[in-house]
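User: Here's a protein and a ligand (pyridoxal-5'-phosphate). What would the complex look like?
Assistant: Let me lay out the input and then the predicted complex.
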Amino acid sequence: MDRQQLVRQLPPVHELVRESAGEHGNYPQHLLTDAAREVLAAWRRAILEEGAEPPGIADLADAVRRIVLDKLRMSLRPVINATGVVLHTNLGRAPLSDDALAAATAVARGYSNLELDLETGGRGSRYSHVEDLLKDLTGAEAALVVNNNAAAVLLCLSALARGKEVVVSRGELVEIGGSFRIPEVMAQSGAILKEVGTTNKIYPRDYERAIGPETALLLKVHPSNYRILGFTREVTREELVSLGRKYQLPVMEDLGSGVLVDLQQYGVGVEPTVQASIDAGMDLVTFSGDKLLGGPQAGVILGRSGLLQVLKEHPLLRALRVDKLTLAALEATLRAYQRKDAAETLPVLRMLAIRREELQSRAEHLRDGIACRAGDACSVTVIDGFSRVGGGALPLTELPTSLVVLRPKKATAAALAGRLRKGDPPVLVRVQEDGVLLDPRTIGEGDEEALVDAVAAALRCLISEQTG
Ligand SMILES: *Cc1c(COP(=O)(O)O)cnc(C)c1O
């Protein structure tokens, strides 16, 4: 048969659409038609150009349905985080508590008193729902919440230092995750950056020399994702605050991660608490809602009432404002700190605090589950290792954990990691030399079974790739 004749064996579009819809017929008609055209065009080309054999209509219909399902699938989906990085920015940072989810759902489903004062019936402020809580929890005079911490810093600088100078230590001109760089946020706000000191050493006199009639603010930035070690000298909060008092300048601290509890009780390392920063006399403090606080993406601004009033009246606030779902989830998260059950109810704190024995037993359980399904396609062992806090917090802290190591017999670890990432649900792992590492610390408590299935499916895919 010549190639033209072979092409004529392909079914017409409407027939393939009918076959693909099958009995259930709940695929959108227009997507079936588009996909059928795409599949037929590809086969026409393959036949004419490469002399391929036309497949049967059942196989063509399978291909059509795969395309349609792919088009209909949610792009933003849950994944299993087996990396052991608790606050992974690419994976959405903090998972929310059940209370935070319930609060967001309740408010999302219907109407709420977002900007209504239920006492008076008059207009209320969306910011009021969390302000008193934040004040009580931290000792701050006033509080405000915006879209994220980058927005918080931008608002503070724009409202208080536009056209004026802000003094910052050279050792604190940080970049966080590529897009947030202190010098660039400063430029965007219209404030003029006045760098002082050297990368590793700074003294109060360096700030003092830079202070002049154009100075609007002294800024301290938490060096989130790096540390300068060795021959160093920092200006402490207290030193900076006393300089601010002396020259009557507000002192601001961008804390980055913002924790409300002392993490040392979990053996996690020293991270300055928000309360310590307020106690030291900082006039403005900003931090993220979705890092160590364990809530939704948000930027919290705490500080003096007078300064916060300026921020509350600034037109930029409207552009950076936080939405009701975030506020609901944030309030519920803060209530856990108010009730003092944050360590038990917030997933981030729970993951940081899991005991070593529990990690070991979860790893062994996972190993047994996977070994049972993997057969001889892959070796499965448990080793000691480390998890990380992530989210720009405590970059040097290594949290001891137990890791499941997968070593596929006939494929590379990188190939297995790729398969797991493309699976359903996607699984994100660490790859080290010839092993895929799974850290039970960050694997959701109900996700073990799905993870075992995903590993089994990924191994099957790898084998069928090799044999087919
Ligand atoms: C993470 C971080 C930011 C940015 O916060 P987002 O909430 O991601 O906008 C800013 N400053 C510091 C020091 C940080 O660690």
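Summary: The mean pLDDT is 94.
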